[in-house]
Amino acid sequence: MADKYKQWSVQRLKCELAQRGAACGGRKINLIERLESYDRNKNFREDPIIIPEPLDVFWPITGFQQLRPEHRKSMPQLTYHQIEQYFLYRMAEDKQMTSDLKALEKGKDLLNGERIFACSMSSDDAHIYLSGIVGAAMKQKLSYNFKIGIDKRTGDPLNSHCECPAGKGPHGTCKHVAAVFLMVESFVEKGNLAVRKGCTDNMQSFHVPKKIYDGKPLAADRIPWKRKHTDEMLEDPRKDKYMKFSSGYSSYIYNCMVNFCSQSSTNISLRYLTPSTSLQVASRDHDYLQQPITEHLVDKAVAVSPKDAKDIEKSTRMQAKSKTWFDERKWRITASRFGDIVKMTCRRDTRKLCSSIYQPKSIITYPIIHGRQHESRAISMFEELTHFKVKKCGLFVSVKYPFLGATPDGLVENDAIVEVKCPYGGRDVDIKPGKKFPFLVESNGKITLKSSHKYYDQIQGQLYISGRKLCYFIVYTFCDILILKLEYDEEYCLLSLLPKLEIFYKKHFRPYVASCL
């Protein structure tokens, strides 16, 4: 090898040393000795150890599709509580507590500011993977790529990574990752896909005016002004002799106008100078009817045929993920409120009760989140223990009492339903009657459901409306599970439950809904 280097020129020797990262200065003999030393010592250097990046988890490279509304059906239920726990404790593999809740607040601002530029989805048997781009908060032209992994069955966040300094994987908890998690939560719960649309995603709008006026005519004294009204501003400039019209003259002009428009099927500008008639006022004008017009409209809106009832059940099997499910429930009393109505006393504020049924508030508490999160696990354990297959179902509507609806947690074969309860207070204890499980009672040495509890009214209502005879009532905790078989009580339903619900609907709920029209 030494003879080989002696035959090389000085320039070639220097190039070889430069490639090896060595010094290139000195005489030719020094260059040759330096190369010989490198050759002698090359076997003493071990192969370099490649330290994997923290992001060295499995991330698919291909198979991604742009996130679209139809992907909502395949997404698991992801709640704010799960996201909060991930940012607080890092619920995935490392179990490190970071308490990084400020990122969630900043993530909300990014989401509201439409800074999620792109989001794509891929999935396998156990995971959902999301990838895309989120814009920086303070710089318009800066953006970061993100990667997120979610458990396909439970919806728990598993891994996350972002290119920003605070979002390094495999469990990054930066504000950009938080914005994506919050977007997915809103997408799963409400169907809102808050990904910024590109300029080519919308129809061209060169000819569309900036704002279209769609307001209704108002009287001059009701027009909103920035300045405060004074008597001088509202003073009528007409002379006295022109102001002294008979009280019915305006009504006469209005009736002539309405009759002309209805007979000739033409519009005249004078019609738009009068405010629209209130539906409630029109209803009071026809007080000779047996039933107010507004209440008649409510009855007509909830009425269904047997075919309609089947179609509603099929179209609402996604339950809370379906807009139709919310629309069909709005004017109906659902089984979860049967107990509140049956046990209502004369001291109960019926208007507040009707308001909570007609316009339920979206309340997120730990017991509610706990129940939603573990309902699927309870059903899976029920299937393993009983070897039954639980099928999803939608909103059942009674044909005879169309103002009543029920959504069981599942169906078993052709004659049974499933109802799951996951009590938050007793999540870590064995199931037995007592303070943690007030809806249970021990009778003849066996645990059963209290007939005086509102869960009993809920289940009996579900059985009647769905037309089934048996309910598997499942109580699930982290260390125990209880499965009760409850049969349909026909006498109680027909003679007690349904009459009370019908009276409440006709006397309180229907008038309340009619007053909101």
UniProtKB/TrEMBL annotation:
Protein source organism: Magallana gigas (Pacific oyster)
Database matches in PANTHER family: EXONUCLEASE, PHAGE-TYPE/RECB, C-TERMINAL DOMAIN-CONTAINING PROTEIN (PTHR46609), YQAJ VIRAL RECOMBINASE DOMAIN-CONTAINING PROTEIN (PTHR46609:SF8)
Domain SWIM-type: 146-185
Keyword Metal-binding: yes
Pfam short name (any one): SAP
Keyword set, alphabetical order: Metal-binding, Zinc, Zinc-finger
SMART domains found in the cross-reference section: SAP (SM00513)
Name recorded for this polypeptide: SWIM-type domain-containing protein
Gene Ontology molecular function: any one: zinc ion binding
A single GO BP: DNA repair
